[in-house]
Structures are given as structure tokens and as C-alpha cells.
Specification:
By secondary structure, this protein is mainly alpha-helical. It contains 13 helices and 2 strands; from the N terminus they run ααααβαβαααααααα. It has one domain: ABC transporter involved in vitamin B12 uptake, BtuC, CATH 1.10.3470. 42% of the residues are buried. Keywords: Cell membrane, Membrane, Transmembrane, Transmembrane helix.
């Protein structure tokens, strides 16, 4: 039984990686008081940009991952201009970005439907990868999985231990007070939104150049919405977001291994499991209003102009 669970556990880390990138980016943006519902669109834009760069240059993920991050940042910049500089409704701008990302990625991606990439070979860490059970799960992954863990550690440290983290929280709680004592509120929010776009684009590029690695229309399959839900599930805390990403990653990968594990459920139900889990978790979290009120940034979603 344990041998059959090793591929599931190992696959969970890879399946959760796009959610970690996108979720961390959205968490930072929301900490600054900006809710960007365009994560799904930014993931798709990053996915097609990364795949196109990898295919055209022949460099694979080495070109695809930075290209995806830059494309996601560019999409986030468009959102920021409308939502921050023009003080438009943030939810509407985010939804528009998602619709735009779906259409743009489908249009550009039609030229890459028949392409496939070599992907990225997993790294086998000497000695550690030979440890029974733990070795194949934790120490035989591709480099981007370890990069996602490094990104988590960096974001958690910045938010908890640095002046920048305190500034983000201050702007998210009361932009008026932060502006009154001389902090550039819009500049800080721009930086947070652009970081969120880069992380979502990086997650999308990982999907198309490493995890799959090929282009499929709408290949994000709702991961952007799950990433937004993860931020609420995590109560805006990086540690809980990481655990939530692995939970949803496990549910996602389990559907592919269900038949091999002897789970007799309809394929359609298995495919819907990640989204059902998202709904259940949000319902449970919403019942704990005290937890949400304690951690919810007070100015989240509220436009601000100095």
C-alpha cells in the first residue's frame, strides 16, 4: 500500500507548485489591500508566453519560466492602471483580466497545439533521495518545486520580519494613515500587484513548460480561482496557504491515481473533486467569522487615491 502511495505523494508536490506561486502572489497583493480576481487570466497568459518562449528559443523552461513571469507582470500592470491609478472597481477589473487572459491565450496558443517540450528532469539529491518513502517524495523533484518552497520561505520572512512586510500590512489596513505619515501607498500597492502577476505567470509557465509540458487551451483548469480561495482558506497567512496548496494538490493528483488505488468512483466525480473541496473548505472557513475578521485587511478591495 505504501509503495502505491509514493507516486501520489510525489505528484502532490508538483501539482501544488502552481497553486503555491499563484497563491503567494495573490496573498501579497491582498495584504496591501488589493484583491485581484484576474489570477486565472494571468496564469493562462504566463502559460502561453512561457510555452511560446520555450518553443521558439529551444531553451525550454530556462526561457519559458522568466517569460511567463514577465507576461504575468505585464497583465497585472494593466489591471493596476485601472484598479489603482483610475480607482476602478477591483473585482470588475479582475474579472475582465481573466476573460481577456482566456481569450488571448487561446488565440496565441492555436499555433502551438501540436508542439511538445522536453520538460525538466527531476533532481535526485544524493543520499537523501535513497531514503525509503521520504526520499522519492521530497528529494526527487524538479528544480521549480524547490523554487516554490524558497518563494514561500521568502514571502513568509518578508511579511513577518521585515519593514517591507509591515508597510504592506499598514497599507492594507489603513492607506489613509500610511499616506499621512509619508508612505507612497500607490507605489507599494503597484509593487504588490506586479509581484502577484509575476508569481501567477510563473505558475502558468510551470504548467505549460514543466508539469505538462505541452499547450492545451484553458490548461489552468480553474487553478487561478483555487489560488484566490486558498488565500481566504489561509486567513492571509503563508504557512496555512502552503498546507492548503498541498491539500488541493493531493486531491488533484488523487483523481489520476484513483483507479490504480482501487477507488471505484465515476471519472466525472473524480475530476470535480478539487472544486468540490474548494467549496467545502470555503463554507467551513466562512463559518469562523472571528478568524476572518482578525486577519482580513481592513481596506481590501477599497479603491484609494491620495
Amino acid at each position: 500500500m505504501m509503495d502505491s502511495m509514493i507516486p501520489v505523494l510525489a505528484g502532490t508536490l508538483a501539482a501544488a507548485t502552481p497553486l503555491i506561486f499563484a497563491g503567494l502572489g495573490e496573498l501579497v497583493a491582498e495584504r496591501s489591500g488589493v484583491i485581484n480576481l484576474g489570477v486565472e487570466g494571468m496564469i493562462l497568459i504566463g502559460a502561453i508566453a512561457g510555452f511560446a518562449a520555450a518553443a521558439e528559443t529551444g531553451l525550454g523552461p530556462a526561457a519559458g519560466l522568466p517569460a511567463g513571469a514577465l507576461a504575468g507582470m505585464g497583465a497585472a500592470l494593466v489591471f493596476a492602471v485601472f484598479a489603482l491609478s483610475l480607482a476602478a472597481n477591483q473585482a470588475a477589473c479582475g474579472l475582465a483580466l481573466t476573460i481577456f487572459g482566456i481569450g488571448l491565450s487561446a488565440f496565441i496558443g492555436q499555433h502551438y497545439v501540436s508542439y511538445s517540450l522536453p520538460g525538466l528532469k527531476p533532481l535526485s539529491i544524493p543520499l537523501l533521495s535513497d531514503i525509503p518513502v521520504i526520499g522519492p517524495v521530497l528529494f526527487h523533484q524538479d528544480a521549480v518545486v524547490y523554487l516554490s518552497l524558497a518563494a514561500f520561505a521568502l514571502v513568509a520572512w518578508v511579511l513577518a520580519k521585515t519593514r517591507l512586510g509591515l508597510l504592506l500590512k499598514a497599507v492594507g489596513e489603513s492607506p489613509e494613515a500610511a499616506h499621512a505619515i509619508g508612505y507612497p501607498v500607490l507605489a507599494i500597492r503597484y509593487g504588490a500587484v506586479l509581484f502577484g502577476g509575476a508569481m501567477a505567470g510563473l505558475g502558468g509557465a510551470y504548467l505549460s513548460t514543466v508539469y505538462t509540458p505541452l499547450w492545451v487551451q484553458n490548461m489552468s483548469a480553474g487553478r487561478g480561482w483555487i489560488a484566490v480561495a486558498l488565500v481566504v482558506f489561509a486567513a492571509w497567512k503563508p504557512g496555512r496557504l502552503l498546507l492548503g496548496a498541498y491539500l488541493f494538490g493531493a486531491v488533484t493528483i488523487l483523481q489520476f491515481h484513483a483507479q490504480g488505488l482501487g477507488i471505484a468512483l465515476p471519472v466525472q466525480l473524480l475530476a470535480a473533486l478539487p472544486y468540490l473541496a474548494t467549496i467545502v473548505v470555503l463554507v467551513l472557513i466562512s463559518r469562523d467569522r472571528r478568524l476572518l475578521q482578525l486577519n482580513l485587511p481592513a481596506s481590501l478591495g477599497k479603491p484609494y487615491l491620495p
